[in-house]
Design brief:
The N terminus is likely disordered. The chain is mainly β. The longest helix has 5 residues. The protein is about 5% helix and about 50% strand. The strands form four sheets. It has a five-stranded mixed β-sheet with strand order 2-4-1-10-6. A hairpin with a 2-residue loop joins strand 16 and strand 17. It is globular.
Length: about 260
């Protein structure tokens, strides 16, 4: 028995209305590729259109799916939102590799051969997992957003059956000055920390959001100064991501809770 996976690629622009268009459905178009060297696609994503992809997957017998998306010139992949998830356990996995194909050995994957990846489940619903994917331990890693080019995705279910709906959000590319800060413009101290972290910037801090490794928002702080002390004493020990937004842009940084 296979689980249904519905992938919704939401391409959003302020000046365009959103329309719906299904670009692939395994029920009518056949099974997505099970070979990363010849993935399905590439599917070119357009702003202002909601493109949907429907796929079936299960852990036993194992069914893996590979597909490639293309981010066009002047655009960027900003988010991957988990719209819904239904499953018997929390072992669904999504990986990403740069390029129109991938030669990673997915029968025995090694993180260092991936651009990124993440597990996800019910706790991820409503959250953006793209920053989490970029911080997969041991992987090449990346910071959001992802710029123009081809990206190949691998979908894997190693346990029970599951159902998921994802949204891939694409918009126009913003300049680095408008969109992304450098590491030197934000400091987090101490890190690792047990009880409190201090986040400081030479820019005014507007909002700080902490996410766990599943992409679930665990704490949000809005501010109007250059320094913020955040209590993390109630959080479980482990890795978190801090999305820090200032008047001059944003950046995502790792935070380790001891």
């Amino acid at each position: 028995m296979k689980a249904k996976l519905l992938f919704t690629i939401a391409l959003v622009t302020i000046l365009s209305s959103v329309t719906a268009q299904e670009f692939y459905n395994e029920d009518t178009d056949g099974d997505l590729s099970d070979d990363g060297t010849v993935p399905s696609g590439p599917f070119v994503l357009e702003m202002g259109t909601t493109n949907t992809l429907t796929a079936s997957q299960a852990g036993n017998p194992r069914d893996v799916d590979f597909f490639t998306i293309t981010i066009q010139e002047g655009q960027e992949l900003q988010q991957i939102i988990v719209n819904s998830y239904n499953g018997t356990d929390n072992v669904a996995f999504i990986a990403i590799d740069s390029g129109a194909t991938t030669d990673v050995d997915f029968s025995n994957p090694v993180a260092s051969t991936l651009l990124g990846g993440a597990t996800y489940g019910t706790a991820s619903v409503g959250n953006d997992i793209l920053p989490v994917m970029g911080n997969l331990s041991g992987a090449e890693g990346f910071t959001t957003p992802l710029g123009e080019g081809d990206y190949t995705f691998w979908l894997n279910q190693t346990g029970g059956i599951s159902e998921v709906e994802l949204s891939f959000v694409v918009d126009q590319t913003l300049s680095v000055d408008d969109n992304q800060l450098t590491d030197s413009e934000v400091t987090i101290f101490p890190n690792p920390a047990q009880n409190t972290i201090q986040i400081s910037s030479n820019h005014i801090l507007q909002k700080i959001v902490l996410f766990d490794i599943l992409g679930k928002e665990v704490k949000t702080v809005e501010n109007g100064t250059n320094t913020n002390n955040i209590d993390i004493s109630q959080l479980t020990s482990g890795l978190y991501l801090a999305k820090i937004t200032t008047q001059n842009g944003s950046i995502t940084r790792r935070v380790i809770k001891q």
